[in-house]
């Protein structure tokens, strides 16, 4: 594999695209993506995001524990109420045991027939809000398609066909193989062709103890400056600069 091809597996070579490695079930990744989109909107610009899967349940060989997500959701939601998050409102048996189907749908939406990269990003945003804000079980295909139906850029029927065929399932495992390497440090990790390489930007926090043994995330501070710098760097809408 050439060096350029190797880099393509890590991030997009398109200078206006931000490659984000994450799991939909990661609150910190959802915070970072919200910040990126919000700052772009405030600047009157758009941001192109290429989502890559960092499937925590495959790394850890278990569903991401609900108590950990609950604790992180409270810590982040208390500091950032504009996110519109809430504690899981339904019974535990409705809680998503896996986020792989949702991440597969995001990958499937990249196909031109479904909507392409903008549709993929719109679906990813909607699925995250459905989970954290709406208490919807995004493990279930019918719920994923119901969320997709609310996304103007997504062709719901084409997405349904892609999920039936499993056309994007292999992409999750290709991403997993790359994510196991040394460059991707966790969820979220952001890259750009211009040089951004940052894990969980802006957030300063620490766990008071092991999350498996009753520890809590102490969210100390958060800065959005990284998003301003990143959007300046990618120079959205500008043609690629000559080398």
Q: What order do the helices and strands come in, and which of them pair?
A:
Elements lengths: L2 H6 L8 E6 L4 H16 L5 E6 L2 H5 L5 H14 L20 H9 L8 H16 L8 H9 L6 H10 L3 H11 L9 E4 L4 E3 L3 E5 L9 E6 L2 H10 L9
Parallel strand pairs: 1-2
Antiparallel strand pairs: 1-3, 3-4, 5-6
Helix pairs in contact: 5-6, 7-8
Structure keywords:
6 strands; 10 helices; disordered N terminus; 44% helix; two-stranded antiparallel ribbon; alpha+beta; 243 residues; four-stranded mixed β-sheet; Glutaredoxin
Please provide a written account of the structure:
With 243 residues, this protein is of the alpha+beta class. It has a single domain, classed as 3-Layer(aba) Sandwich (Glutaredoxin), CATH 3.40.30. 44% of the residues lie in helices and 12% in strands. It has ten helices and six strands; from the N terminus they run H-E-H-E-H-H-H-H-H-H-H-E-E-E-E-H. It has helices spanning 3-8, 27-42, 56-60, 66-79, 100-108, 117-132, 141-149, 156-165, 169-179, 225-234, and strands at 17-22, 48-53, 189-192, 197-199, 203-207, 217-222. It has a four-stranded mixed sheet. A hairpin with a 4-residue loop joins strand 3 and strand 4 (197-199). Helix 5 runs antiparallel to helix 6 and helix 7 packs antiparallel against helix 8. The longest helix is centred in the first third of the chain and has 16 residues, at 27-42. The two termini are 23 Å apart.
